[in-house]
Every structure is written in structure tokens, then in C-alpha cells.
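Q: For a teaching handout, I want to show students what a protein-ligand complex looks like in C-alpha cell form. Below are the inputs, and the small molecule is flavin-adenine dinucleotide. Please produce the holo structure.
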Amino acid sequence: MTSTSPHPDSGTPQRFPVVIVGAGPAGLTVGNILRAASVDCLVLETETRPFIEQRPRAGVIEEWAVRGLQRRGLADRLLERAQRHTECEFRFAGERYRFEYAQLTGVHHWIYPQQLLVTDLVREYADVRGGAVRFGVRDVELHDVDTDDPSVSYTDPETGRREVVRCEFVAGCDGARGVTRNAVPAGRAHISRSDYGIGWLALLAQAPPSSDCVLFGMHPRGFAGHMPRSADVTRYYLECPPGDDPENWSHDRVWTELQQRLGATGALPLTEGRLIEKRVLDMHNYVVEPMVFGRLFLAGDAAHLTAPIAAKGMNLALHDAFLLADALIAYLTKADTTGLDGYSAACLGRVWDYQEFSHWLSEVYHGTSSGDPYRAGTTLARLRRIFGSPTAALAFAEQYLGKNAEY
Ligand code: FAD
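A: Here is the structure, written as C-alpha cells, with flavin-adenine dinucleotide included.
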């Protein structure tokens, strides 16, 4: 929502240089970096703190992103507790194919559940760096973001009053279902969309991983994925029709499909367990260009959604957050506009590269089950190329790890 002036019933406005809408990985990272540079900011979040600290989503973090967090003093707990992954396994045509990406590139993945990262970031921001945050806010609205005097209003959950916060900048970090993106008028940004026309049943099982690495199963019945999360929790994915009802997937049906789609010569059966999360994600992407409107800077899923096909969304959110926080600090402390001027273009290079890789990988995952023998044939050719050509293997590994230094 956007309007041209603050809500008329509001009391005395608060004032912060930066208002950050959304306490996900993007918003909390921006907030932490600003606080470390003694720039005041306010984070507004619709959910409660316990809720965001327990909301499971991502798990795969790229090495450059962890280094970026580490440089800003935000990775101590992650580095103590995250698992280091150096290979993954493709299963297709009844066989297993290990892909040792760290050996090829010298780069690895970190596995750290998103809710643990969010817990670390909110603790550091609110409890250590003394950052201001309001949880449980309602009806967030942006005002005058195309002027030098923007503001954000919200309903305080305790008093029910509309509050107004005046600021110099708004960081729109409120994810795919937030409101900040809607503050950009039609015609001032272009939104590109792509819909894969498939769904993934996203599952969390109270069960130890069944392999020491990520498994991708390309099967005529549909794609299946196995992603270790911790010693006793594993994320699984099953390709399903878009909009499917999770209730169509009983415990028995889920495990039968997973065993079948991830089955391969010499593979042990999966270790089954209670399903603690079961929801259908419709696979689609979008990109907002530019990611800036006046004093509003979008970051993370608010600006671009990458279906979890290639495990890229949180990594992109962190990349945006590093660039945005540094640019805001440069402007607010040294009146240097370079970072803010170049922010959108600097983010979008990596965003489009990851979008393209997700598209490519989607065909690898879903071609076999498309029902189209031509697509099944080209999928198999792509897979064989990765395992037959060292050059193709290296190119794949670099994209899988986000290793390209220049975007
Ligand atoms: P979010 O995490 O969505 O945070 C936005 C915050 O804003 C939320 O806390 C929300 O409650 C709040 N909010 C919403 N509306 C408002 C409002 N109006 N006002 C104030 N606050 C608001 N990515 C990877 O990189 N690797 C992976 O392995 C991976 N796996 C995934 C698995 C699944 C099942 C899913 C669903 C996603 C996965 N992703 C992965 C994507 C990743 O989770 C997202 O890209 C990431 O959460 C984006 O972070 P963000 O801070 O931009 O947005």
C-alpha cells in the first residue's frame, strides 16, 4: 500500500534514518550492518519473534554469503554449528552419480536451517547491537517514498493505534507476500514473471538424513529431493501438480513415492519418520526492475522470487542486504551516493544469473517426468554431459555454488 501522506489519526511521529520492513534474512542483515556502523534504524515485522525464530525454509547457504556474514560479525554461531557439504548425488535411470563439486572448484556449501540464521540475526540485532524492532505490527503502509520525506505507518498490536515513523529511506525486505513492492506504481518498475506450471510438495521429516549429501532424483513419476538439515531433521521435496492439496499426501503415500523416486542401484532405503511440515509450493519466479523507487529500496524476495529449485533465494537476499546496507551507510555517513545509485544494477546481475540457472536446472529435474519423450531425452543428455565432460561439470559446479565472481 502507498499513499501520499501519513495516516491522519497518527500521534507524534517517530524518526529513524532507515525503516526496514520485514525481519527475514534480508531485513535483519541490513539492520545489523547499519547498527554496527551506528546508523539508527527500525525493523517492522508482522509476525512475533518466536514465530520467525521457528519458521523453517532454506538450508543451503553459499560460501561467499557466509564469508559476507562473517566479515560483518554475523556468522559465529553458524560457523560453530553448520554442516559443510562438498558433494551431491544425482539419481536417474536407476543409477547413482556422485558429483564432487568442492573437489572441482575448491568451494563448498554450508547447511544451516534458515530459522537458526534468523534467530542468530535477531539476537545480534536486538539484544547485542541494541537495534529497534516492533513485532506483530499490522497494516504497514508506505507514504511519500518518491519524496525526500518518506514515512511508514503501522498499527501497534498492543495499543491498536496507528503509528507513523518518518525516515530518510525505506528498505523493503518483507518477502514475497509483503506490501512494499506494491508501493511502486505501475509504470515505474517492470515485473518479469515465469511460472513452471508444476508444484513441489515441501516436506520436513523428523528423521535423520538418509545420505551424507543432497540427493536429486529424476524419475518418470516426478522429481524428488533429499536435503539434510540436521542430525534428526531432513527436508524432502516431491514434484506434484500445482495447487495440489497437501492432504492428498498421506504419510504412506509420501514415503512410498520418495522411496521409489530416490531409489537406485546400491542405495539403501530412506530412513522414514514423522512428517512435521507438509505444504505445496507452486514453482514460479519474478524479478522487479529496477529494485528502487525514490527512497524505497527493495531487497530479497520482495524484489525477486527464485523458486527453491536451485536453493538460491536466501543467498540472493543476503547479497542484496550486504549491498544495500553498505550503500546506505556510505550515503548517511559520507553523503556518497555511488552505492545507492548502483544498487539495483549490482543486485540484478546476480539475480538474473541465478534465475537462468534455476530455469536450466528445472528442466533437468522435471524433463524426465514431463511425459514428453523429447524433453526426457534432452534432460538425460544434460545429465550425461555433466558426468561426461569435465568442462561441463566445472561450469555446472560454478553455477550451483554461485562462484562466478563477476555478475
Ligand atoms: P523472508 O524470509 O520472507 O522475510 C520477510 C519477512 O517480512 C518475514 O519475516 C515476514 O513475516 C515479514 N513481512 C511480510 N509482510 C510484511 C509486512 N507487510 N510488514 C512487515 N513485515 C512483513 N533459499 C536458499 O538460498 N537456499 C535454500 O536452501 C532455500 N530453500 C528453501 C526452501 C523452501 C521450502 C522455501 C519456501 C524457500 C527456500 N529458499 C531457499 C528461499 C528463502 O527461504 C527465501 O528466499 C528467503 O526467506 C528470503 O529472505 P527475505 O528476507 O527476502 O524474505
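A: Two things your students might notice: The CA atoms of residues 220 and 369 lie 4 Å apart. Residues 2-79+113-192+285-355 form a domain with the FAD/NAD(P)-binding domain fold (CATH 3.50.50.60).
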